Amino acid sequence: MAFRMVFGLMVLGLAANGLCRAEPPPTDEHVWFGPKAFVEGRTVRDDFIPMLTNQDHWSEIASRVDVFKGYIMILPDIPVPGKDAPEISDDEMQQLIAVLDDLGLKTAFEVGGARSHEPGAGKQAAQNEFTHLRRWLDLGGRIDFLTTDHSIAKGLEAWLETVDHDFSGEMTYTDDPEVRELMQALCQETAAYFEEMATLIPGVRFGVIDSLGFFTVAGPEGQTYRATRPEIPELPFDAIFAYLIDAMAERNLELDHFHTDYGYEGVRSDGRRAGLHLDYGRIIGVETTVRSHGIRTGNIINAFHDRTVDDPAPNVANREAFERTLEFFAGYMATGLAPDHIVLQTWQPYPDRTGPEDAPYTVMNLHRTLLRHEAFPELPPGR
Asked: pTM of this prediction?
């Protein structure tokens, strides 16, 4: 099965509805690897650095991935409350940088972005976050990609805290100037964030993650996926994404990728509403829209354990998260989508150990299993 698979019948339905696609440019960064770093807050898992800085613990993964993805909050040199040293020392960080360099992996960081519609918020956020990113650069690291995490959705949530929810759920992007101006301002500040980062880190490429559950999405078979919370206004993803692209172009910038963050729980929730087990239509609609602009796509592959159980036994929760992630991935690939990036990334509490890759139900073991999965696309030569 070639990596750029032909779209399946569900996706072809969108073409029949008149959505013109533009093929994103070829990429050499197909597989992204981002293991969970934190216990909670900024507290880093005890085994995070020991596992990553010993190549023997993830040798098969390392041979098959192209990008290591980290979280910006592993970088601060400010100790968490109750400690007198940074979570990751300069020496440990240099060890990790050396391993990534030796493996020839590119480096991405997930960052906050503007998260506000206030004028100047994007530039200020970039300057603030660069104080942490600079530590990585000063220690000899490279930063090839920055991906904002829910920058637009977080800004929308801040606005929702100021309005009457009895009315906000009836508002629309098309009919209500307040909503339209808010979303356009959030896109402008996200673009302003990238503009400032382009001056601070020359050559870095930019991407966006945002919450699919915040938007109204046209599905592949004519269905409409509405926001997953009733107080959210009607926000058409295609219109807002187009405005973000325009806001970037106004600054002579290009968006490199959009990664959908809608894992097992999202497609399970949509499935319940549609009378299905898992419904990938929202993801298909978003990824097809993104590709129509010539922007690379990919979905973050992960799942929670069974959260209806209080205080689950770790061995049970590890297995549940593992099995649900595999189920989600198999269904995602069966849609016939042609993702440019496969993003193996965890931020859930389970699996609760980073590695090694040959220990059952660790994060690394999960990611190695996904790389070996029969549904995993065949990669081009080179890695």
From this structure: 0.92
